[in-house]
From TrEMBL:
Protein name stated in the entry: GST N-terminal domain-containing protein
InterPro entries the record matches: DHAR1/2/3/4, Glutathione-S-Trfase_C_sf, Glutathione_S-Trfase_N, Thioredoxin-like_sf
MF-aspect GO terms: glutathione dehydrogenase (ascorbate) activity; transferase activity
Gene3D superfamilies: 1.20.1050.10, Glutaredoxin (3.40.30.10)
Native organism: Dunaliella tertiolecta (Green alga)
Coiled coil: none
Domain called GST N-terminal: residue spans: 44-123
Keyword annotations: Transferase
Reaction equation(s) it catalyzes: L-dehydroascorbate + 2 glutathione = glutathione disulfide + L-ascorbate
GO BP terms: ascorbate glutathione cycle
Domain of life: Eukaryota
Keyword Transferase: yes
Family classification: Belongs to the GST superfamily. DHAR family.
């Protein structure tokens, strides 16, 4: 079996081992020269140096970008996961590594908490309630896999979307979860919600932004934010759509 190829990248895309490491800053105007260099292990195409479709990885990349923290990316082909990744995280991404501290940390929840502690400025603490969207992702997975006649899955998905839409339109400080700037709730929920928008339209014919106008405005606002744009999959919606179609066809569950 051929050894898996990896790639180390600069914020958006890059290559490992066979390619020189290229230093990259999440934001050239914000990153400090004294900041530690992190390596983020991501799902992607090592040959083409393209970031893949993982909302949990995007959460971490958004956090790094918005804090102006310098980082590289190591791409892993999920068809050929290396043994070291299986040992560290069971084959899951993201993982962040930092050689100076011997850091080898999986789990996006743990990673963003660590980054907030180590790099408190600018703070990404959110004023949005913790329960907002807490069950959205499993509800979405159940809905996108369910047959059309499963009314319970549909009603639960609509209830989740309505709660998010209501918060954005009535309760939040808007236009994002905590106001004008991306915060921790945005970093966590927006990638999952974006995957749902793409997958539900492609697989179910359900256009979320068309029905939920505050969610549409939310993504219109996010699209102007560098921390959002630079952390999306390189091939955009097509790779997200293909990924979810494959998951549904295989009976995948998170």
């Amino acid at each position: 079996m051929q050894a898996p190829k990896l790639a180390v990248s600069t914020c958006s895309r890059t290559a490992l081992s066979i390619s020189p490491r290229i230093a990259h800053r999440a934001s050239s105007n914000m990153a400090s020269a004294a900041a530690p260099k992190y390596d983020v292990v991501v799902k992607g195409d090592p040959e083409a140096k393209k970031l893949g479709d993982c909302p949990f990885t995007q959460r971490v990349l958004i956090t790094l970008a918005n804090k102006g923290i310098e980082y590289d990316q190591t791409y892993v082909d999920f068809a050929r996961k290396p043994d070291w990744l299986m040992q560290v995280s069971g084959g899951k991404v993201p993982v962040i590594r930092q050689s100076e501290k011997g850091l080898n940390m999986p789990d996006s929840d743990v990673i963003v908490e660590y980054l907030e502690k180590e790099h408190p400025n600018p703070s990404m603490k959110s004023s949005a309630p913790a329960e907002l969207g807490a069950s959205f992702f499993p509800t979405f997975i159940n809905f996108v896999k369910a047959p059309a006649e499963d009314k319970d899955a549909t009603s639960k998905m609509e209830a989740e979307l309505q709660a998010i839409n209501d918060y954005l339109s009535k309760e939040g400080n808007g236009p994002l979860m905590g106001g004008a700037n991306i915060d921790a709730k945005d970093a966590s929920l927006a990638p999952k919600l974006y995957h749902a928008c793409v997958a539900c339209k492609a697989i179910k014919g359900f256009d979320i932004p068309e029905k939920y106008k505050a969610i549409k405005t939310y993504f219109d606002t996010l699209s102007s934010k560098p921390g959002w744009k630079q952390t999306l999959p390189v091939d955009g919606d097509s790779v997200i759509e293909a990924g979810w179609k494959a998951k549904v066809a295989s009976g995948w569950s998170h």
